[in-house]
Amino acid sequence: MKTFTRRYVLGGMAAASLGSRALWSLGTSSRRIFIGTYTHGSSKGIYAYRWIAESGTMEPLGLAAETPNPSFLALSPDHKALYAVNELDTYQGKPGGSVSAYSIHPDAPELALRNVVPSGGSGPCNLMADHTGRALFVANYDSGNAASFRILASGDLSQPVTDIHYNGHSVNPERQQSAHTHCATVSPGNRYLLVNDLGMDRIM
């Protein structure tokens, strides 16, 4: 087992995948962390770890799901499902990335794939479920848009429902020539969706 200090996590995770995302899942018999990665090298997707709070260690549980570039993960409000962006330039031969939905088994580290749908834009980099667990929102960095999805009763994701494109720029000619949405956050009261855009220096 590996002891994870704050310095190790801040430095090691960035070195491992330049920004992997780790999320809690509270099972009936264990506490797990799912970590997303970029899969350009030896990594194959989402990995599971067992977190032991008393000792501050994480025990590797292996590959939870093989999927390309799951660079950001989000849990459903009830912690029974996990959603991942697949940060891609093309999906099924068309420009754009994808979003994967998984069921979480309470005792097993492996994730069960529900379905994969287009992300509604290219370079998806962030996502969040609303507080009712009935909708999912995705920020697509490269295409500068946000998309919404229904979370169906089966646990599957619908095709994109809402597609909001942004147009604009800001002061940095190298990074801000166009819109680059990079975060979609649901407000605590579940009334608003806040979309951060790097290219325009705005929150919509």
Please give a quick description of this structure.
The protein has one helix spanning 6-17; strands spanning 2-3, 22-26, 31-35, 45-52, 57-66, 72-75, 81-86, 90-91, 94-95, 98-104, 111-118, 124-129, 135-140, 145-150, 162-165, 181-186, 193-197, 202-203. By secondary structure, it is mainly beta.
Notes on the structure:
With 204 residues, this protein is mainly β. The protein is 6% helix and 46% strand. It has one helix at 6-17, and strands spanning 2-3, 22-26, 31-35, 45-52, 57-66, 72-75, 81-86, 90-91, 94-95, 98-104, 111-118, 124-129, 135-140, 145-150, 162-165, 181-186, 193-197, 202-203. It is globular, with a radius of gyration of 17 Å. Residues 1-20 have low confidence and may be disordered.
From the alpha carbons, calculate the radius of gyration and give it in angstroms: 17 Å
Instruction: Output mean pLDDT.
Output: 86
- The SS-based structural class is mainly beta
Helix content estimate: under 10%
**Low-confidence residue ranges:** 1-20
The counted number of beta strands is 18
**Strand and helix order:** EHEEEEEEEEEEEEEEEEE
